[in-house]
């Protein structure tokens, strides 16, 4: 069993109005060193297999076909092996 | 021949009844609802993907709708030349399925916009626009994510193939940034595929059909489509 975490980010060239608005808030709070706030998505789930290659393939396809839109987003993921007990927690 | 419009109903659609009502009760064409879990297009001649928030707009607008059972049929229907018309969320779904190119970003203002706007008819030689004699039409928009974006190469293709069908403009058809309600690339409000049998647009023609609402320009698009079957 693996735990997968996927981060979906907007491609650098694509406008991120939400990030821009949040950064205005940062300026209002006085965080003057904050630059280029970009907002993405964090997605986590388990992959029920013992084969890391199968897990990688499945997470990659899931990310490409559904979790991200390649026209505007990039994704990266990590896989961590976990045992069944940890999952229940 | 009286064409039959099929209006797809997703969980979260909210303009499905508006489309059905305008097409059937106001304009007198045949219309039928198509449930998203079905795979039968019920011999409809035109498929409407209506506005709303299919599957709660979770993940991305239209992202989950593209895997609904009916969409599989709609995509093959379109690929065989069938007429598919996506309005607002329906346009977003067409982008996710890849039947139309590009993506929809959040409005530049970050605000949901709801108002009447003018659209310039950029391509009058499509089955969706042939019946429109005016330079511009006045219909409403209501969306939070209507900021059309695509890469430069795709934009060049859209221009070269005359796939840009509607742009946001002034009442006399001037296309300027100040008439752009959402930050959309080149003021794009509606595009078609190369073959011109699939149209997606953010504005809502179905909300500008009933004279009681004070505007009827939206009817021109549905009448154009119907004329194609005469």
Q: Flag low-confidence runs of chain B.
A: none
Q: What is the total number of structural domains of chain B?
A: 1
CATH class of chain B: Alpha Beta
Average pLDDT over all residues of chain A: 92
Radius of gyration of chain A: 17 Å
Order of strands, widest sheet of chain B: 2-1-3-4-11-10-9-6-7
Q: What can be said about this structure in brief?
A:
The complex is a heterodimer of chains A (89) and B (230). Chain A has 89 residues and is of the alpha+beta class. Chain A has three helices and three strands; from the N terminus they run βαβαβα.
Describe the protein:
The complex is a heterodimer of chains A (89) and B (230). Chain A has three helices and three strands; from the N terminus they run βαβαβα. Chain A has 89 residues and is of the alpha+beta class. Chain A has a domain at 2-13 and 40-88: 2-Layer Sandwich (Mth169, Chain: A), CATH 3.30.1280.10. A three-stranded antiparallel sheet of chain A has the order 2-1-3, with helices on one face. Chain B is α/β, with parallel strands linked by helices and 230 residues long. Chain B has one domain (4-227): Class I glutamine amidotransferase (GATase) domain (Rossmann fold, 3-Layer(aba) Sandwich), CATH 3.40.50. Chain B is built from five helices and eleven strands. Chain B has helices at residues 16-26, 69-79, 89-97, 152-160, 218-227; strands at residues 4-9, 30-35, 46-49, 83-87, 103-105, 113-121, 136-143, 147-149, 164-169, 188-192, 198-201. Chain B is globular, with a radius of gyration of 16 Å. The termini of chain B are close together. The model of chain B has no long low-confidence stretch (mean pLDDT 96). Chain A binds chain B through residues 14-15, 17-18, 21, 41, 66-67, 69, 71-72, and chain B through 59-60, 63-64, 67, 96, 102-103, 105-110, 147, 149-151, 183.
């Amino acid at each position: 069993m693996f735990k997968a975490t996927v981060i979906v980010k907007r491609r650098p060239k694509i406008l991120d109005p939400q990030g821009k608005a949040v950064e205005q808030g940062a300026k209002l709070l006085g965080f003057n060193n904050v630059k280029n706030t970009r907002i993405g998505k964090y997605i986590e789930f388990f992959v029920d297999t013992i084969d890391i290659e199968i897990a990688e393939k499945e997470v990659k396809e899931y990310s490409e076909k559904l979790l991200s839109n390649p026209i505007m987003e990039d994704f990266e993921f990590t896989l961590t092996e976990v045992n069944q007990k940890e999952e229940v927690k | 021949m009286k064409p039959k419009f099929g209006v797809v109903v997703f969980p979260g659609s909210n303009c499905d009844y508006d489309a059905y009502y305008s097409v059937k009760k106001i304009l007198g064409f045949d219309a039928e609802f198509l449930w998203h879990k079905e795979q039968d297009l019920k011999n409809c001649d035109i498929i409407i993907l209506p506005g709303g928030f299919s599957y709660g707009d979770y993940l991305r607008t239209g992202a989950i709708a593209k895997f609904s059972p009916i969409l599989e049929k709609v995509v093959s229907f379109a690929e065989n030349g069938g007429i598919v018309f996506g309005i607002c969320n329906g346009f977003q779904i067409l982008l996710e399925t890849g039947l139309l190119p590009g993506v929809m970003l959040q409005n530049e203002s970050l605000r949901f916009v709801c108002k009447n706007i003018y659209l310039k008819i950029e391509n009058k030689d499509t089955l969706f626009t042939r019946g429109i004699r005016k330079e511009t039409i006045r219909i409403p928009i209501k969306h939070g994510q209507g900021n059309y974006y695509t890469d430069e190469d795709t934009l060049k293709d859209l221009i070269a193939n005359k796939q840009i069908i509607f742009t946001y403009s002034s009442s006399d058809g001037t296309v300027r940034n100040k008439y752009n309600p959402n930050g959309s690339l080149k003021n794009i409000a509606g595009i078609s595929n190369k073959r011109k049998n699939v149209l997606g647009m953010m504005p809502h023609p179905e909300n500008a059909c009933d004279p009681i609402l004070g505007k009827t320009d939206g009817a021109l698009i549905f009448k154009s489509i119907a004329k194609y079957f005469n």
